[in-house]
Design a protein that fits this description.
The chain is α+β, with helices and mostly antiparallel strands. Helix content is 27%, strand content 28%. It contains 27 helices and 60 strands. A five-stranded antiparallel β-sheet has the order 14-15-16-17-18, with no helix packed on it. Strands 27-28-29-33-30 form a five-stranded antiparallel β-sheet, with no helix packed on it. It has a four-stranded antiparallel β-sheet with strand order 1-60-59-58, with no helix packed on it. Helix 11 runs parallel beside helix 21 and helix 17 packs antiparallel against helix 18.
Length: 1240
């Protein structure tokens, strides 16, 4: 058993149970590394690494239907810190934006009173990160400022909107899934609502209409059965409304853009996933389930690799990875290669047992690493699965026909060092290498190993079972039991088990299967044992089976306390244990009560038939144990005197006697003493009886006649000199036994279900439970302290109540939750930093802003004065010890693998920056360092090879490095790789086209890509009865006869410019590409605002120098104030190798730490020279970074960077070490080392 420190200041908390159907979609895994999950009207915050609930947010009045973490793609500093911000929408249309750490609401938003359909934070604006887009049913989208709650704009659409998806590559594109089809919006902006109603497309059913056959010309071979099936599953996207029988869009469960490839979208149906290419509006891939397979519920596309996580109806999660288009079969038989995007099943986890009440709801995956998934089950369980990679050949590989997956050759963006430590399962792209593209050879590298993927269950959180519950808190803390006290709460459930929770940690301590029917009540006998009773459903005579069990917590032993009794008798109404835990009274419905001795388990008395019917009963807190003990002590002392005077025995014997006496006195005190105890009860007339029990004698005492103002008494509570009675009409009667006064108070709340006094000496607070809520009363002053009522301040019914400490109450409610609340009974979230967690949680977002930044810097600037350390106290850091302690806790919470990699001297600066941005879930850092590290290394490699003498005509083009940037970086990839990808894609489109429109688009693409022969073939396919037959034929002739003679060139150029001037931009650009004037074409495209198209064309057609000009103009455009996408411009400049410009921009944007580390990396790799032109920038960047470090309190780091910043830095050094004489030796020596490195 875990030894707990005694912390009787229990945190207010909520133990949650099963989910409501409306909570189905309310789950999100944020970049911050935490999962938010709606449970009825509360929101749980779960840490997936240690699988514990670290916060429960309570403020919503209705069920939570959507939760969304804010995105982290902005530069973090003290004014825009790392913070946990969450938006949640409920069924009554209210949206709350939370500060999760403190559990408070930033703002509340209400527009309509219908459930919120979808929520998303805008991710693209460098200007503001507070914008929240919401769908308010039926057909409104509203943009809110999520910090202030102000509405920026609102727009309505013609049909009901179900959900939306943003294009991850272009923030102005989004798609709405409506009840009839899809609406594409291309002019989304935060400053004004979309102008047009969007382009509406309808989807004809993927199963139905026979119209989806290919045009005859495209069918070249008789398809086999499987191919027929694939050809049939075509989605025809049309602009006309389909006929009534073809409309089955309601099947469409989900629409999302693919974050791994531009312009691709995924549609999910129960039995297939369709991948659409949006340029053609055509299906290019299908993942279908065979007839016996389990239907899909949800799919999440990954960004790092072209892979899909799919959730099936049986709770099984499968991972499908896109097959490389270079497969072995293609080489052997070109006819056989079907051109599809094929997603191969690479891994799947175990299914769950699905029943009526247990169904998988939703899955979320970690957005930072994409290698772990969490499954939310309707019964409140959260199952956390991790994807693990195992190297080694698979046995079944040949038969399954799957091409093997390989491990990547790099770690954190750089090739692996010879003896470098690495974490293979760091993220999806460090587990499996890139999907190959047609025309690429496998890199012949010995390091690459085949890899198998497996899911491992790494955590499980389970909730409470379905209500009703019976609660009982263990006996209170006293000075005697303080050393081994645990605040345990026993919860009896409807299925007969008893759950024991430890309220310090909020974790399940034991689950005991005790009964076979619903548990009705629990009474503790000691800190480690309790009695519980359950009654079965009555038979037609009204008789039941009563089970009364004695449970020992330490051993888990259960036995029937009443022996053989219990079958076919009236149900037990209640049981009450006396204050000294000596006696037990069991009260039945239509049968006299029984009195038991709990220590021996014997029946002391079964009352006579004429015994009055008991309506309420309570034991008196007074007893004569103290006087009995005094008498016993006196007697024992007398015996001791006698024995000593009697004889002069040997020392040995006297010690034996004393041992015997001790043993005897112990046994006496535990058993022989039977103290006298009393209980009172009332009968149906309200008469109060008083009965005394001593040993096995039972005496009837005084009777008090009924009070006329009270109805039938329902419950009694007694503490000290106060006795309180509650009746079925809601009256409370307070008796002061000392002063012999009684005072009745009508509460007008109906039946008093239960009353309990708070524990603690002299604490006279009383908890009262009614059918519609609860109240706390102060019995000294006889006045109400606090009250809660269903419908007024809460939306749940209270099922049971108890005190858990002298100032906190615990309530069970019908929404399946059990809440520990302050005496004021306000459901409130708690501050996370007051939580007492069993396992430490790695989440820098929990620290105060400054401490989080310090922690990041501490990890980035290793080694400190020459040593790698994970101990913050070894660094010259001026800060309160409390904050140092919190930072150290975070460092200790890191995994050992992570610590050893971070302390590995082989880890380069670039790898360290990437790794730390991953650890922090810092989206903007991660994108920046991924691109920066790739191109710094690529250009460094190019410089080396040019220096070796093989000059490549153009000095700018890097040689193809060992690995390229993943295609999810789109325009930022190397031109050669980007070109191959585009050709591959157009080839696929060509195979998949099914109408003249598609063919025309393919021909256009091929012309732009310079594939003239293939384009001519397509143009000649146009049938004679088509309106554009003549036009296409002439175009084909033109393409084949173009010569580079001067006159024809100038004519075509003239025609092209006229076309462009008259609004035929695309056609003009095509003509210019035909005569190799693509650079002019790009210029025209940019003039007409088609920036993305121009960048695309530059990547696929121009030589490096021309392409670089086009992209630089684009970067300037991105920096302009009306576009304001500087962070994207920086990435574009990185891909062009304009490192000095990037350094300047970072410094100008006041990204001081990023600027300094970037310049440092450029100097290390030799892609930036420290000469007269760049020195000014380098020194000012280092100086600002030193100032930043000083503001964080890291003096040693500040001195190190200041020492490299020239004269201004010297001034800062003097300020840093004022009054301490000279600069410490370590700084100077380390500076020399760094200086040498940068000159290398």
């Amino acid at each position: 058993m875990i030894p707990y420190t005694v912390n009787i200041k229990l945190a207010a908390r909520t133990l949650t149970g099963t989910l409501h159907l409306q909570n189905k979609t309310a789950v999100d895994w944020g970049w911050q590394g935490l999962i938010a999950q709606g449970c009825h009207s509360s929101i749980l915050i779960i840490d997936p690494k240690t699988s514990q609930t670290i916060q429960v947010l309570e403020r919503h009045k209705a069920n939570v239907v959507k939760v969304k973490w804010s995105r982290e793609n902005y530069y973090h500093n003290q004014s825009s810190p790392y913070c946990l911000r969450l938006a949640s929408g409920d069924a009554s249309g209210k949206i709350i934006v939370w500060d999760v750490v403190s559990g408070t609401a930033h703002c509340e938003i209400q527009e309509h009173s219908k459930p919120i359909q979808d929520l998303e934070w805008l991710w693209n604006q460098d200007a503001s990160r507070d914008l929240l887009l919401a769908i308010h049913p039926p057909n409104y989208i509203v943009l809110w400022n999520g910090d202030t709650g102000t509405k920026l704009w609102k727009k309505s659409y013609a049909e009901n909107i179900l959900s939306f998806s943003f294009d991850p590559f272009d923030p102005s594109n989004m798609a709405l899934l409506t009840s009839e089809g899809i609406v594409f919006i291309t002019d989304f902006s935060h400053s004004k609502p979309p102008g047009s109603a969007g382009k509406k497309v309808y989807i004809a059913s993927p199963h139905a209409s026979p119209a989806h056959t290919k045009p005859a010309s495209a069918i070249s071979l008789a398809p086999t059965g499987a191919k027929k099936a694939l050809n049939k599953v075509k989605v025809l996207i049309t602009n006309e409304k389909p006929t009534a029988e073809a409309v089955t869009l309601n099947d469409c469960l989900q629409l999302s853009y693919l974050p791994s490839k531009r312009n691709h979208m995924l549609l999910l149906y129960p039995r297939e996933i369709l991948i659409l290419d949006l340029e053609l509006s055509q299906t290019v891939g299908v993942v279908a389930i065979e007839r016996s397979g389990v239907p899909f519920v949800q799919v999440i596309p990954c960004a790092q690799r072209d892979a899909l996580y799919c959730l099936h109806e049986n709770g099984c999660i499968t991972l499908r990875v896109c097959r490389s288009t270079t497969t072995q079969e293609e080489a052997t038989d070109p006819e056989q290669s079907t051109h599809e995007l094929l997603y191969d099943l690479r891994s799947q986890c175990d299914a769950i047992r699905v029943t009526k009440t247990v169904r998988p709801y939703r899955m979320v995956i970690c957005p930072v690493n994409e290698n772990s998934a969490a499954l939310m089950v309707s019964d409140g369980r959260a199952m956390l699965w991790e994807l693990k990679a195992h190297t080694g050949r698979a046995v079944t590989n040949q038969s399954s026909g799957l091409s093997p997956l390989y491990t990547p050759i790099s770690f954190c963006g750089s090739p692996l060092g010879t003896n470098q430590k690495r974490i293979q399962d760091l993220s999806l792209n460090s587990m499996i290498g890139q999907t190959l593209i047609a025309g690429e050879a496998l890199p012949p590298s010995s390091i690459q190993q085949e890899v198998q993927l497996k899911f491992l269950l790494s955590g499980l959180l389970s909730g409470l079972p379905l209500p009703p519950f019976a609660l009982r808190m263990c006996p209170p803390l006293t000075t005697k039991n303080i050393n081994h006290y645990q605040p345990l709460l026993a919860i009896g459930t409807s299925n007969g088990s008893v759950l024991v929770y430890n309220l310090t940690s909020g974790l399940l301590h034991k689950e005991l299967s005790v009964h076979s029917c619903e548990v009705r009540g629990i009474e503790w006998l000691s800190l480690t044992s309790f009695l519980s009773f359950a009654t079965s459903a009555p038979n037609n005579m009204g008789m039941v089976r009563n089970e009364l069990q004695h449970v020992d917590l330490l051993t888990g032993r259960c036995f029937a306390f009443r022996g053989e009794r219990g079958n076919d008798e009236p149900p037990i109404e209640m049981m009450k244990v006396s204050h000294l835990k000596q006696y037990l009274v069991v009260v039945f419905r239509d049968k006299p009560l029984e009195l038991w001795d709990t220590r021996t388990g014997t029946l002391l008395r079964e009352m006579a038939k004429n015994f009055p019917t008991v309506t309420a009963l309570e034991w008196s807190p007074s007893h004569n144990l103290k006087s009995l003990k005094k008498k016993q002590m006196a007697a024992r002392e007398a015996i001791a005197r006698q024995t000593v005077s009697d004889a002069e025995q040997s020392i040995v014997e006297s010690s034996v006697i004393s041992l015997l006496q001790d043993a005897e006195s112990k046994s006496e005190s535990s058993q022989a003493i039977s103290a006298r105890e009393h209980f009172v009860f009332t009968d149906t007339d309200g008469q109060v009886y008083h009965i005394t029990v001593e040993g096995n004698t039972v005496k009837d005492g005084a009777r008090i006649p009924p009070d006329g103002s009270m109805g039938s008494i329902a419950c009694i509570a007694w503490k000290g000199d106060t006795l309180v009675l509650g009746d079925v009409d809601g009256n409370l009667n307070f008796w002061d036994l000392k002063a012999r006064l009684s005072r009745g108070i009508p509460t007008h709340r109906g039946w008093v279900k239960k009353i309990r006094f708070a524990p603690g000496k002299g604490n006279q607070k009383l908890l009262v439970m009614y059918t519609d809520g609860a109240e706390v009363w102060d019995t000294k002053e006889v006045q109400m302290v606090s009250s809660m009522r269903i419908g007024r301040n809460v939306n749940y019914r209270v099922l049971d109540i108890d005190w858990c400490t002298s100032d906190k109450v615990v309530l069970a409610s019908d929404d399946g939750c059990i809440r520990v609340l302050e005496m004021a009974m306000k459901s409130a979230s708690y501050r996370m930093d007051e939580q007492d967690l069993t396992d430490p949680v790695w989440c820098p977002y929990l620290l105060v802003p400054r401490a989080a930044l310090t922690l990041k810097t501490f990890l980035l600037l290793q080694p400190w004065s020459g040593t790698f350390t994970m101990d913050i106290t070894q660094v010259d850091y001026t800060e309160k010890d409390e904050i140092k302690g919190l930072i150290q806790e975070q460092l200790n919470a890191m995994t050992n693998d992570m610590k050893s990699v971070l302390q590995d001297p082989e880890l380069s600066l670039l790898q360290r920056c990437l790794l730390v941005s991953r650890l922090f879930g810092d989206e903007s850092d991660l994108h920046f360092w991924t691109v920066a590290s790739h191109y710094i290394q690529a250009f460094a490699q190019a410089r080396l090879s040019t220096a070796e003498g093989n000059t490549q005509g153009e000095g700018t083009k890097p040689p193809p490095p060992q690995n390229h940037l993943d295609i999810c970086n789109d325009i930022l990839c190397e031109s050669s790789y980007f070109q191959k990808f585009q050709l591959d894609r157009v080839h696929l489109q060509e195979v998949k086209r099914s109408s003249y429109e598609h063919t025309k688009k393919c021909a256009d693409q091929l012309l732009l890509l310079g594939q003239t022969d293939r384009a001519v073939q397509l143009l000649l396919e146009t049938s004679a009865d088509n309106a554009s037959y003549y036009c296409d034929s002439l175009k084909a002739c033109l393409v084949t006869t173009i010569t580079s003679s001067g006159p024809s060139q100038s004519t075509i150029k003239l025609v092209a410019t006229n076309m462009i001037a008259n609004g035929k931009l695309a056609e003009g650009v095509q003509l210019l590409c035909l005569i190799d004037k693509a650079a002019d074409a790009c210029r025209y495209l940019q003039t007409y605002g088609e920036w993305n198209r121009a960048a695309w064309l530059a990547k696929v057609r121009l030589n490096p120098a021309e392409s670089s000009d086009v992209l630089k103009r684009w970067a300037e455009h991105l920096c302009s104030p009306q576009v304001n996408q500087k962070s994207k411009a920086i990435l574009v400049l990185l891909s062009l190798g304009c490192f000095y410009k990037v350094g300047e921009m970072l410094h100008g944007m006041r990204y001081f730490d990023r600027a300094a580390l970037f310049i440092e990396a450029c100097l290390k790799y030799g892609v930036m020279e420290a000469d007269d032109s760049s020195n000014k920038l380098i020194k000012s960047a280092f100086l600002e970074y030193a100032r930043l470090l000083r503001s964080l309190g890291l003096r040693e780091g500040a001195a190190l960077w200041a020492s490299r910043a020239g004269s201004a830095g010297e001034q800062l050094m003097e300020e840093l070490f004022q009054g301490e004489g000279s600069v410490p030796e370590s700084v100077i020596s380390e500076d020399k080392e760094l200086g040498q490195e940068s000159t290398e």
